[in-house]
Write a structure and sequence with these properties.
The protein is mainly α and about 80 residues long. It contains 3 helices and no strands. The N and C termini lie far apart (about 70 Å). This is Ionotropic glutamate receptor L-glutamate and glycine-binding domain-containing protein.
């Protein structure tokens, strides 16, 4: 039995086309944050918590934290950089 069957609820999964939520000049949002702000969605998942987003939506208490590290290749040194 699924949770939806247990609680006798139905739901629709909406594709946000990979847009999580960015604020515009007039403080309206696109993506999942915009859908929550405009009440076209009741719940969303897999969001990064930011201070700007916390001003317009309510987050639940985080049950898991992940630390992400970004890496990039070392820059190549030109012959002129070696002179310094």
């Amino acid at each position: 039995m699924t949770i939806a069957e247990y609680y006798n609820i139905t739901y629709d999964v909406i594709n946000n086309n990979g847009v999580w939520g960015v604020s515009s000049i007039n403080n309206t949002w696109n993506g999942m944050i915009g859908m929550l702000q405009s009440k076209s969605a009741d719940i969303a998942s897999c969001l990064f918590m930011t201070n700007d987003r916390q001003n317009v939506i309510d987050y639940t208490y985080p049950c898991y934290s992940e630390y992400i590290t970004f890496t990039s290749p070392m820059p190549t040194i030109t012959h002129f950089d070696n002179l310094l």
